[in-house]
Structures
1.
Amino acid sequence: MSLANPRFEDSYARIFGSDIGMDGRADAFFNAFYDRFLQDDSIAAMFANTDRERQVVMLKKSLFQLVTYYVVGEPNAELDRLAAVHDRIGIDPNAFEVWMQALIETAQEFDSQWDEATQLAWCWALAPGIAYMRLMSQQSQTRRSEQP
Ligand code: HEM
């Protein structure tokens, strides 16, 4: 299915190549992403015991989940599972904005043809998935605060 977002598709291909991002180039990208994301002390604390290599592989896959959500328009079982994982960890809903910002800045670093329209195209592609994860975490935060 087409994304109908050629600027995103082109940028994605410039960054990751054509093999859906499972080669070494993607490793460099996700390591750079993590360096940015972990600059926030409260977020770094949550990853204190995380094996980065494992996390990089999982993040690659999850980026595709977010894009799939954009294409298909409804969450699949894996996105639901991811939301539940983050629910258990008790992520602050605002942290998803930090995640998104780190991703956009990293994409900018790795795409030599980056411009404002490309940035908008990335936001457009990822916003639904981020909104979904954020909403799930907000709902569970509300449930927790309502518990007697
Ligand atoms: C939409 C954005 C995000 C995506 C796609 C994502 C993706 C993932 C994935 C795939 C895992 C591995 C879990 C598994 O597969 O069982 C994970 C774990 C985790 N995520 Fe996220 N994440 C996102 C946002 C965040 C945010 C904002 C935080 C806030 C700090 C966060 C904190 C964590 C932590 C602490 C873990 C557990 C790490 C471990 O296994 O030690 N994530 N995330």
2.
Amino acid sequence: MSEKQVNTLRKFKQQMPKNRRRFRTFLTKLEKKAPKGIEKITAAIEKEVWQEVDCLTCANCCKTMTPTFTAADLKRISAHFGQTVEEFKEKWLYKERGSGDWMNKKQPCQFLNLKDNKCSIYEIRPDDCAGFPHLPKRMKDYVHVHKQNVEYCPATYKMVEKMIGQIDVK
Ligand code: SF4
Ligand code: SF4
């Protein structure tokens, strides 16, 4: 692990409050009008981000957010534990009002090993976890998602920081 990657979460917590307003303003402008060629630029930036951020020194998503469990996730993960879907839901999840989505009751997530920040069901984790923080997705479609995640995720923070340095928004 490089020095840059050490204490990803600690640095993020120090820097985020100082930059929140600037980052939100940038993302709001980007949401309204993304400049031409943005996907090419963000693809290159994403590669840089993962050279500087190490999720195993962070795990803030698993500590402070909840994934949404799809029907396929529920079937796969409950079977892994020899439970029925209903038993699994009752033990760990609640149904969110409005959306009807199944979410974790607990934070940190019950499947996070707090000693090493590793997911104990990594191979069969929810699709939502596998896709997080959605940095390689088409930027134009995901700005609103990054706007929320930048509050929690140092990789998203780094992505936005680098975008501000390289992308002009009007
Ligand atoms: S995805 Fe983001 S919040 Fe989750 S561990 Fe990696 S850097 Fe941290
Ligand atoms: S299932 Fe694994 S990856 Fe998903 S929130 Fe829990 S610990 Fe993190």
3.
Amino acid sequence: MNRLLYIQASPREERSHAIRVADAFAESYRETHRGAEIMTLDLFRKDLPPFDGLAVQAKYTILHGEKHSEEEIRAWRAVEAVIDEFKGADCYLFAVPIWNFGIPYRLKQYIDLLVQPTYTFAYDPEKGYSGLVTGKSAFIAYARGGEYTEGTEAEAFDFQKKYMETILGFIGITDISSVVIEPTLQGGPDVAQEKREAAIARARELARSF
Ligand SMILES: Cc1cc2nc3c(=O)[nH]c(=O)nc-3n(C[C@H](O)[C@H](O)[C@H](O)COP(=O)(O)O)c2cc1C
């Protein structure tokens, strides 16, 4: 069975352009993949564990090959649960707004929980880094208030798409397709709607062969 994990990184729910486009992808995916299971993870509603001093200490304890304290074990189990849920999926769907040229902080927190040595990536002194989440694909709907068209000066400010592709690639997810909804603010509501509809049509089409 295909298990699709749908990760929503906008708090704007039905107002979110990225979620509206990703919803269309999910609907088309469900129609064209019999028996598919779609699990939705709303990062602004989910009670994510903190990646605080204790969790970081637990991570370093592993890196240094030491034994966890009772407190660290508890903190680390919460991190492992997030990783297990992520790795349990066969493929991924993301709805991602651009915030301050990057990604929303809840998505960054989620990534800080996920990206752990021996769980999602490995390091070998001779071969270097390798991703451990392999054989999986991802579709990402990106929304932006402005425009970051390739080849323009604005492209240099895009730390949203570049970061998502870099970090997913780092853990082994290199088969990534995406659509960009832009501008959602700069051109006014009519332009935003037009761009969103075009993105929905493209997302539906990509979902069929995903
Ligand atoms: C905190 C915050 C920061 C934002 N920063 C940017 C930005 O750096 N560049 C940009 O083009 N739009 C920015 N925006 C606008 C959003 O990217 C835009 O409204 C987009 O449609 C949000 O995605 P959503 O509709 O899926 O929620 C920002 C919005 C918020 C709330």
4.
Amino acid sequence: MIDLDSCDQSLFPTVHRSSRTDFAACLQCKSCGNGCPFVSAMDFTPNQIIRLVQLGMAPQALESATIWICVGCNTCTINCPMAIDIPAVMDALRHLALERGVAIAEPDILEFHREVLHSVERYGRTHKLEIMMRYKLKTLDLFSDLGVGLRMLKKRKLDLTPSKIDDIHHLDPVFKG
Ligand code: SF4
Ligand code: SF4
């Protein structure tokens, strides 16, 4: 049931402006969700998220787990007959959720995003081992992926020490504004 009185009229234009995506063109054909590798873990399918934004249903869209579970792989956009940039919409919703201080449905994933950004800020690229270790310490989930981590180390898929790009100060405008 949609309560039109409680619809947030600013949601559509805000997400439209921030994502630079014309999601008004969505046909609700569901091709995006059908191809999404993470749809089974989501509470709303990608097309449902688009519809929530179109209808101004801000709490449902901003508090959804979907916007944090989306990994931005672009599979949905490739499948979309209207070429809608769904990852950009998810990104805009994540920003808005943080801006409005809504309860984050997947706080551990937010923590993971923070650690990835922290690594890029420090080295100009990601140092996966450090990201995982910091993430594990922060979430106090120390041992769940130990086996995978050890196998990756054995196959030399994880660098023990980080490598830094030259001229890291070029990233200052990104992180320091
Ligand atoms: S594939 Fe594109 S047009 Fe179809 S429902 Fe998803 S976003 Fe809408
Ligand atoms: S970008 Fe997000 S919504 Fe689209 S297919 Fe990948 S995980 Fe699913």
